[in-house]
Amino acid sequence: MTNLQRNTPRFWSAFTAVLVIIVFPDAPVLGQGPWNTYARNAQHNAVSPAASQSLGRIRWQTPVDLQPAYSGNELLIHYGSPLVTALNTVIVPVKTASTGSFRVEAHSGTDGTVKWILPTDYVLPPHDWTPVFGPALTSKPRLYFPGAGGRVYFRDNPNNTAGAIGQIAFYGLSNYQANPQAYNSNVMINTPLTTDPAGNVYFGFMVTGSTPINLQSGIARISSTGQGSWISVTTAAGDTAMTKVVHNCAPALNPNGGTLYIAVNSGNGLGLSDPGYLVALNSTTLAPLARVRLKDPESGMDAALPDDGSASPTVGPDGHVYFGVLEAPFPENHDRGWLLHFTADLSQSRTPGAFGWDDTAAVVPSSMVLSYTGSSRYLLMTKYNNYANAGGDGQNRIAIVDPGATEIDPITGVTVMNAVMSIVGPTPNPPLPGVKEWCINSAAVDPATKSVLANNEDGTLYRWDLTSNTLSQKIVLTAGLGEAYTPTVIGVDGTVYAINNAILFAVGN
Predict the structure, then answer these.
(1) d(Cα 362, Cα 313) in Å, to the nearest integer?
(2) Does residue 315 contact residue 45 with C-beta atoms inside 8 Å?
(3) How many beta carbons lie within 10 A of that of residue 70, not counting itself?
(4) pLDDT tens-digit profile of 269-294?
(5) 423 Cβ neighbours under 8 A, 6+ residues apart
(6) How far is it, in rounded angstroms, from Cα 301 to Cα 303?
(7) Which of 51, 66, 209, 381 could bond to 186 as cystine, CB 3.0-4.6 Å?
(8) Is the pTM here over 0.85, yes or no?
């Protein structure tokens, strides 16, 4: 995560003691909610239907990057999320070369045994930090993963050692086959894939040069029957200055699946200060429904939608939409950005969160926080770092915030979402003051144990117990390193998956 920060949020220094007994499952119970896409589902709520196992041991591990491109003690990369089928097959996106060649692997969730491996000719878009290579599953089951030229490959029956494979081009496979070089050179998928319960697939793509059918950067849909369609970012935003979907911005759908949300900007993949919009589209036709220019809540200036971030829209159970942006002017908010908050039709802006831009917020049912006395149906879990090298105190936290309650942010004086509780990282970060940051782009929420599973830059996976507000369990994965954006996942048998130092770790009983 690039450095952002926030002054110490308000949190409770005293609370009523509660005896909590957490029972972790001894035997796997399969089929409890597969993890189909980034942050689990099309709303990106990261809520696990399966109870997580105890963080007792590393059960198996496998590399997700065969040639990590280190920059000192940092990895400037966004790793794609592992996926888990209903039958406990783990799909692992793997980078195979320092320049960004990729493949997908299928592993047994029980012991990590490799079931099959498929390469892809996927080409990364122009970038600074290495963007996400993000496959997605459907309930068919079918796996989709990006290929070159804006194509999407699929593999049926991913639980089996053999299955049908194929490819789809959203603009027509016959068009691609007529001139593959033109499309391979100029069309690149630049977001993770998102799938819906019906088996439709959505993603953003970037066009850098001419193609025979005059493709423009935009948003694509492939139906469950293989029919492709697309809309340009200029049409979606109603602004000819827009050039592309924001890198790494996985499309999101509202709870009934009828509206698609995605962010677009005016960048070229290399910038940090590009303005843009959050747009709403009809999820079937991709017709524009609404758009909102994204603004900094303090300055009123256009917020930045950087391609080095990993924010994707999160859609709450009530249809409200949350999306992280970077502050402007920078670093007025200690590089924390803002978590902007909109009604479902994007017509009303609600209270923002005090941290946002390189993070996708997770949904926390209010019942998970026994001490909570407010009226909100759900809360949000987000990073709450306060970066020492951007004016902060280095007290890097994760937090539960209330989208329906407010407080005054001590750094900016802006009215922001109330921080219901937060917890600071445990590991000093010399020579800077404070502690090492929380190294996540999406955490995993476990209602069964009333906890959040989150990875830290210190190389450790932690369980944040929301009843005691303590880091109640931990397991050391590596010696730690800086910056790589990583997701945390809970499998259908409760195994917890976390990436640290280019390795995927399967942790459980």
Answers:
(1) 10
(2) yes
(3) 14
(4) 997 789 999 999 999 999 999 999 99
(5) 397, 398, 399, 464, 469, 470, 471
(6) 6
(7) 209
(8) yes
